[in-house]
Amino acid sequence: MTLLSNKVALVLVDVQYDFLETGTLPVPKSSEIIPVITKLMKLIKDNGGLIVATQDWHPDNHVSFASNHKDKLPFQSTIIYHQGIPVNQVLWPVHCVQNTHGAHIVDAIPSELIDYTVQKGLNHNVDSYSGFADNQYFEITKLAKILYQNHIETVIIVGLAADYCVKMTCLDAIKFGFKTILIKEATRSVNPDEFDSTMELLNSKGVIIAHAKDLAIA
Questions:
Q1: 8 A C-beta contact, residue 55 and residue 117
Q2: Among 94, 152, 190, 205, which is disulfide-ready with 147 (CB 3.0 to 4.6 Å)?
Q3: What confidence tens digit (pLDDT) does each residue in 13-34 have?
Q4: pLDDT at residue 170 tops 50
């Protein structure tokens, strides 16, 4: 697969401690993706590409935290209102709180290869899965601008978690006009039973589901 050039960006979605198996919001087998990602980062850099990392960066009063809702438990849902609009909100364990260890990008990821870091989820009133925008599109992050200014045409997406933040970042990458590729071996789901259906959904929306071997990094 000839995808490696200075018009390609690798987007690392939320490869943070709280999403590892030992974190507060553990993604099963999440640590398995780190060697694949590090190899891919080096390959992208060797071919002149761009690397952008997204980072969940929540205030401790974030609306997505179950602990901020009376009588609610993690993984339940509730209706919240943002700017008068009702939204079905999945409630999560407290995770990726600003300036905590759990919010840091995993040390095994070579930070010196990351060109930009895009923080998301800073607005405590609305959740933000995608690296491009919050869930209701009230606020757009700087990710699209970074990609446009660097003349990126293709984005390769990896990270956590496949059924939430990775999925929404992929779908938004399509909306923002980028050829979008997801490396299957470089993502894992919060709910492993939903991994295959997530891949099918993304493929149906125009996301290319590729394998590490396609980029000679297996």
A1: yes
A2: 152
A3: 999 999 999 999 999 999 999 9
A4: yes
Task: Quickly count: other Cβ atoms within 10 Å of residue 218's Cβ.
Answer: 10
Sign of the C-alpha dihedral computed for residues 205, 207, 208 and 211 taken in this order: negative
Which residue among 96, 165, 167, 172 is the active-site one? Answer: 165
Tell me whether residue 127 is one of the annotated catalytic residues: no
Given 120, 134, 163, 167, the catalytic residue? 120
The yes-or-no answer on residue 165 being catalytic is: yes
pTM above 0.90, yes or no: yes
Residue 217: pLDDT band (50, 70, 90) is: low
Domain range 8-60+97-215, its CATH number among 3.30.450.20, 3.30.160.100, 3.90.1150.10, 3.40.50.850 = 3.40.50.850
Per residue in 183-209, pLDDT (tens digit) is 999 999 999 999 999 999 999 999 999
The answer to whether 89 and 77 have CB atoms below 8 angstroms apart is: yes
How crowded is residue 152: how many other Cβ atoms within 10 Å of its Cβ? 21
